[in-house]
Specification:
Radius of gyration: 32 Å
Strand content: 5-15%
Largest sheet: 3 strands, antiparallel
Helix content: 40-55%
Shape: elongated
Strand order of the largest sheet: 3-4-7
Structural class: mainly alpha
Number of helices: 21
Distance between the termini: 78 Å
Number of strands: 11
Length: 493
């Protein structure tokens, strides 16, 4: 076992979205590739927005995606627990380290109000300077601080950032990145209510949980110099950082819920396979030397490398995801597709869609449409005509095949001949039925389509579907003959 330890640390303030899943996936793949540990930590310090329902969504999504964590909620190791930041806050972990920084003179209480800080930033902008806190409380004497406390003023704790020089990040993906310290202000590490801020809490937790690599989206890169300075202040060894390029929507803007589903679980409801979504997200920012597109989870684990992650943004293409989902479905056996479909029905509470349907017939019907299924939710509409008591004739099918001047006469002949002949058809296999239809076309001097189409519409109500003769074989003689008779009475009497 290697000493590699990575973490995915979502904030439970809403649904788990595509960008978050990709971050989790890359961390999971890196850990599995290096035989390391993948940790799930819940960063719930945003008290106003964090909620238990969002935690449940995160855990449910991670389980569905099969991104199992070695440590985290439900699998806590005493050495590193707890894995919720507010629980860690209750244990006094963050305050302990904030007090240590104050004692070292590397942090200080700040009594400025939110309004005062906003005014400082606006003034700086007016003077064409970086909009930042001006350090008003940075050098208060102990007597001045005592007086402010006597006056009942509440304080946050700010980290004392260096005001000269540069902070240098050696990013695994981006290489050397420099940050001018003069542009960074003394940021808050503990709020007035004692709750730690993100930049402080994540450093403390990463250190105590012995995180070796921090893999995250490049929207966090601006936080990195602040976090690096906290590591420096404690004299701690830093983890290695890797910032993944952003994901864009088809319009070139940063991916957001307006480009599609806000929650990754919405893709599950739509009928996407877990493995298709994982496969597709792996391609957003990572590639192999041979540009392979379709992977199993095992292949991704074996081949994943941060070195193959690019710095250019990736574009989320819903059409490609849909294509990939279809490819994954086509790689399954009929039995596997059936099991996935049943799971989807249960998850979406849609069992009523197949209420009364024979399972054996359903499996066979799905097999006929195997190559057309792109989403699990497509299945009922593709095969429902096998199970309905009455044919749901689609208007465009009737207009095109039964009622148009070009086809109605031949359609009547085909159906009339078929109902009388099929009753006596002994061999109702697909091959024999196709031969029957071709013989009928030759006898009546019709094109094969003039025979095939009326029969298809009569028995299914639609112009497209699975192989006609396999459909007839599966449907059975009695139902085929009955439906052809109904069509004759309905449209040709």
């Amino acid at each position: 076992m290697s000493n590699i330890r990575v973490r995915f640390a979502p904030s439970p303030t809403g649904d788990l979205h595509i960008g978050g899943v990709r971050t989790a996936l890359f961390n999971w793949l890196f850990a599995r590739n290096k035989n390391g540990k993948f940790i799930l930590r819940i960063e719930d310090t945003d008290e106003a927005r964090s909620n238990e329902e969002s935690v449940k969504v995160i855990l449910d999504a991670m389980k569905w995606l099969r991104l199992g964590w070695d440590e985290g909620p439900g699998n806590e190791l005493l050495k590193y627990a707890p894995y919720y930041q507010m629980k860690r806050k209750e244990q006094g972990i963050y305050q302990k380290y904030a007090d240590e920084l104050i004692a070292k003179g590397l942090a200080y209480p700040c009594y400025c109000t939110t309004e005062e800080v906003d005014a400082m930033r606006k003034k700086a902008q007016t003077n064409k300077l970086p909009p930042k806190y001006d350090g008003s409380c940075r050098n208060l004497t102990s007597d001045q601080r005592k007086q402010k406390e006597v006056d009942g003023m509440k304080a946050v704790i700010r980290f004392r950032m260096p005001v000269v020089g540069v902070t240098v990040l050696n990013d695994i993906i981006r290489g050397k990145v420099e940050f001018d310290n003069s542009l960074l202000d003394d940021f808050v590490i503990v709020k007035a209510n004692g709750v730690p801020t993100y930049n402080f809490a994540c450093v403390i937790d990463d250190y105590l949980m012995e995180i070796t690599h921090v893999l995250r989206g490049d929207d966090h890169i601006s936080n990195t110099p602040r976090q690096m300075q906290i590591y420096n202040a404690f004299g701690w060894k830093m983890p290695e950082f890797a910032h993944m390029a952003m994901i864009l929507g088809p319009d070139g803007a940063r991916l957001s819920k307006r480009h599609g589903h806000a929650s990754v679980l919405e893709y599950r409801k739509e009928g996407y396979l877990q493995e298709a979504l994982i496969n597709y997200l792996a391609l957003l920012g990572w590639s192999t030397e041979d540009s392979q597109q379709i992977f199993t989870a095992e292949e991704m684990m074996l081949r994943f490398s941060i070195d193959r992650c690019g710095v250019s943004p990736s574009t989320f293409d819903p059409a490609k995801l849909l294509w990939l989902n279809g490819e994954k479905i086509r790689s399954k056996t009929p039995e596997q597709i059936y099991d996935l479909f049943v799971d989807w029905l249960k998850y979406t509470n849609n069992e009523r869609l197949v209420e009364g349907w024979d399972a054996g017939l359903l499996k066979k019907a799905m097999s006929l449409e195997h190559n057309k299924i792109k989403l699990l939710k497509d299945i009922p509409s593709l095969v429902d005509f096998f199970f309905t008591k009455e044919v749901d004739y689609r208007e465009e099918a009737i207009d095109k095949v039964f009622l148009s001047d070009r086809s109605k006469e031949s359609a009547k002949i085909v159906l009339t001949e078929s109902i009388s002949r099929l009753v006596n058809q002994q061999d109702f296999s697909a091959g024999a039925l196709e031969q029957y239809a071709r013989d009928l076309a030759a006898e009546k001097a019709l094109k094969t389509g003039q025979v095939f189409h009326p029969i298809r519409v009569a028995i299914s109500g639609r112009t497209q579907g699975p192989s006609l003769f396999h459909t007839m074989e599966l449907m059975g003689k009695e139902k085929v003959v009955s439906r052809i008779g109904i069509a004759i009475n309905k449209f040709f009497k």
